[in-house]
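Ticket #4471: structure output looks truncated?

Reporter: J.K.
Steps to reproduce: submitted the chain below (74 residues) through the standard prediction queue, then opened the result file.
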Amino acid sequence: MNNEENRAELIKLANTRMPYGKFQGHLLVELPEPYLVWYRGKGFPKGKFGEQLQLMLEIKVNGLENLIYPLIKK
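Returned output as attached by the reporter:
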């Protein structure tokens, strides 16, 4: 993946909303870290959405959320 593709994926990640459950409608970056850790223990969903949840957990664990916030489209 080149830099442009990486940036496009990060923008998509920043603007993806939780499609179901307790946090339905919330941006993934708004999900609490313990919820993402719980998901890891339970098993992330298959496919792109599961990959996004895994990536968001890594972002949160490493304290990088501030890199995501400017990419959110208002």
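Triage note (M.O.): checked the attachment and the full token line is present. The helical segments are 3-14, 33-42, 47-61, 65-68.
Status: closed, working as intended.
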